[in-house]
Every structure is written in structure tokens, then in C-alpha cells.
Write a structure and sequence with these properties.
10 helices; Rossmann fold; binds adenosine-3'-5'-diphosphate; 5-stranded parallel sheet; 12 strands; Heparan sulfate glucosamine 3-O-sulfotransferase 2; 16% strand; alpha/beta; 3-stranded antiparallel sheet
Length: 270
Amino acid sequence: VLRGAEPLHNASEVPVKRLPQALVIGAKKAGTRALLEYLRLHPGVVAAGPEPHFFDRNYHLGLDWYRELMPRSYSDQLTLEKTPAYFITPEVPRLLHQMNPEIKLLLVVRDPVTRAISDYVQASTKRPLDSFEHMALLDPRLGLINTSWAAIKIGIYAKHMERWLQVFPMRQIHLVDGHKLVSDPAKEMAKVEKFLGLPPFIRDEHFFLRGFKGTFPCIMRHGVPHCLDEKTKGRDHPDVDSKVLQRLRDFYRPFNAKFYQMVGHDFGWL
Ligand code: A3P
């Protein structure tokens, strides 16, 4: 039996819709869906399922529209949503700060080379694409990286992070290691709970590895097993030419180093 944080609200309280007090801002294809679904295990969390894209796309619809998308919550619960496009959209930090300067931000990151391949795999399910190698390089002989390709640009974390840190202090941003979210989810989630000020609840017993390639954790929610959709998460990646991989690693190395310095943590990407 999973026990943990008991709700603090009194039984007569009527739940209402609230604006988010915390957000998963990105990065796309780093494990944002997994993070949100794991957080929803916690009795102190409610979250919008679909991505609202409020600050990057739907801002003109206003805060009442945004609030309406949120599930009802009690006063002792946190409301969350995830929209990975926030991380890379220049005006978002400022707009978000206007709504709530105290908001807590969660950013999942993953080796930018693997993230780029994951992004490519997703894009290629929507329309036929050239090979990854072809798209990643501007000139195969010179090995120049195509930095105007979104799959490459999103992984230049330092560049995006710089903009966030102009608006929010680092203490309001928690970095989640997308790799550890797969290899040791309970431990990575314990850090998230602490950052969000939630009582410890999520534990190893909430996770199990099932069919689904045996690689990715599934969760037990209210005694019901739940895995992420295997058609859209945990897809197979193509084998990418090792020279191209090396070029990409060389390309990202200085940006990664800058990012580690900014956030005060070395993720150890090669
Ligand atoms: P791949 O499909 O390339 O493996 P996002 O939700 O931000 O789009 O991230 C998708 C990635 O989340 C997947 O990329 C996968 O590696 C990762 N992931 C983390 N935990 C997962 C889980 N429990 N089930 C499936 N994918 C998971």
C-alpha cells in the first residue's frame, strides 16, 4: 500500500481552478511528459494534461482562458502544466514573470545530441525527411553544423538559459536530468518534490519496467499501471554515422560547458 502525504485541506473546501504555481518549461524531447506524469502521482499536485501553449502562442486569449484549462485544486495543492516550447521562445520569461514573479520552473535536459535525434525521429513521423546526417550538416565535406535547424538549435541550452536567467534567479529554476528520470526516477523525483516544497511521496514502488522495451519506467497510479504512449515516447532511434555524431558533440561541447557553469551542475554529456 502506498501511503504518504495526506491532504491538508478540510473536507468542506470546494476545489477551484487556479493559475499554475509551477511549470515544466522544456526542453522538448528531454522527458517532459514523463516528468509531468510522475508529478501527477503526488496528491499535492494537479496538472493540465494537454500542452496549453499559453505564453508562446495563446497569450492573447488572456489569463481567464488559461486558468480555465487547469483542473480544479484544493488550496494545499500545486497546479502545474508543461509546454516545452516555453524554454526556447524569447518573450516567455518576461510574460511569465508578469503573471507570477515567484513561479517555480522545471527544466528537463538531456544530452543535446540524443535530444536532436529524438526530435528528428518525432518530426519524421509527421512528414518524410532526409537522413539525420544530411539535415544536421550544412556541408558534409567541411562538417559544418546546420545551426538553423530547430532540432540542433533547441539543444544549445546555454543560449536559451541565458534569457531565463535575465528574468528569473537560479533558485527558482530546477534542473531535471532526463537520463536519470529514466534510470532512477524515484531519486530524481525526490529532488523535484523538495524543490516544489512538497512532502516526500513518490517512491521506487511507484515505478516498474514493463514490456515497453523494458527500458522505460511505467507508473502505478491509484493501483492502475500506466505507461507513456509507446508510439510517441521511447521510439527507436536510427544509427547515426559516428563521424556526424562526433561533429555534433564537438559542436555542443562549448555550449554544454557554458550551460554547466550557468546552472552549477555538470551533466557529463560527452
Ligand atoms: P525518445 O522517444 O526519443 O526515447 P518529451 O516527453 O519531452 O517529448 O520526451 C520524450 C522522451 O522522454 C523520450 O524520447 C524518452 O527517452 C523519454 N522518457 C523518459 N521517461 C520515459 C518513460 N517513462 N516512457 C517513455 N519515454 C520516456
